[in-house]
Amino acid sequence: MAMDRTSEYLVGLVNELRKLPKETEFVEFKHNNDDHQEIGEYLSALANSAALSGKSQAYLIWGIDDQTHEVVGTTFLPAAKKIGNEELESWLLHLLEPKIDFDFYTVEVDSRPVVLLEIGRAFRHPVRFSGQEYIRIGSYKKKLKDFPEKERKLWRAFDKTHFEDGLAAEHVSADEVLRLLDYPAFFDLLEQPLPADRSGILEALADEGLIRSCDAGDWYITNLGAVLFAKRLDDFRSVQRKSMRVIKYRGTSRVETLKEQVEDKGYASGFERLIAFINGLLPSNEVIEQALRKTVPMFPELAIRELVANALIHQDFFVMGAGPMVEIFDDRIEITNPGEPLVDTQRFVDTPPKSRNEILASLMRRFRICEERGSGIDKVVFQVEFFQLPAPLFEVTGGFTRAVLFSHIALTDMDKNDRVRACYLHACLKYVMRRYLTNTSLRERFGIDEKNSAVASRLIKEAVEAGAIAPYDSTASKKYMKYVPWWATAPKGGQ
Question: In angstroms, how far is CA 463 from the centroid of its own chain?
């Protein structure tokens, strides 16, 4: 739901929830009960029940009679509540696993104080509080383990959950849809004319799954719609921490930050602005061509675009409190996203990418923001080789995926890992082109003069000994030897 919580909005939400004939599995009314342990248990129960009910949020409301739903007011003040020296919100967060989003709001309804606790739904795993999972059975809070059928249904709900299909905003008016989403960018990216009326715009957005109609005549904005075309990602709870963060450091460490910016627009509508900002921070080199001094980028723009797009598309959106990040140093650029890849980093070049967010990936390809399926990382490697840069590094660390591009260094200054990785990725690139690594191709890759072919031979020997590449035909003469990546099947005795 939209994060712009005006008093008017909160009052309207409370009054809508009051209209429910009774408490539901995702709505609970209280008067003054401020027992912190019980609040934590309700966080677990309501988050899990929201997932089971297909809701994006659940609610715990103080100041409403649970029978009549009349406004009675409350003396509960969440901001003033402390457990020892710790504030209530912080204490609750520490005991929740996995972490979920929740927010307390205080508002006056009918001139009486009301407190609304808005709770994000559970994703992937049931939410535990203090090591125990809870669920709502009717209007009662129960331990999930005591209701195995509910537990099975909850896990089935998790299995069917795709981030893109989730709801970022519920019961939004047509005007609010057009206010929250950058719909002109949608039509620009598809190279389609803007429809003449509002209904045409809404129909087109709905056809692509960016919004869905409600029975009451309002609209849902899906996570797909929000993450791609939000005017402000912070307007939506489900994607508010998924903005791309760009940081420029002085030197080669993270000690001193020179500039930092968060791109808060949707990934599709804000992509070109994001790339322009990154490119503006990248170091460059001055070269002289035909007596003219020319500034050239240190890193190939096509590689930057592809890696940034990959980080946005393939991230794990269910990792709470973390988003994609670009870090720029004097000697490298690191592009990181939450979540581990579904493909081994060693096989990025030859294996079509598998994405947790295939609907998102498909639309980004249609918008020509990233390459067609299976043709992205090989282009990154090609561009790096064309610029004669050190080979890119793809790694997984602490539940995050990171791609690193390095600035130019001489072959003689590369360490063994750099050299072996370059040979391996060169072999991978050649293999997907149905060609092979040879002494000649490796000399071209590193800019080694023909008279120094022995240098390329030493690099090949080093990569073979490291197990990174293998002879394609071990019986061939040394002069005509070809090499493939370690995982490629090498025929016995030639062909």
Answer: 34
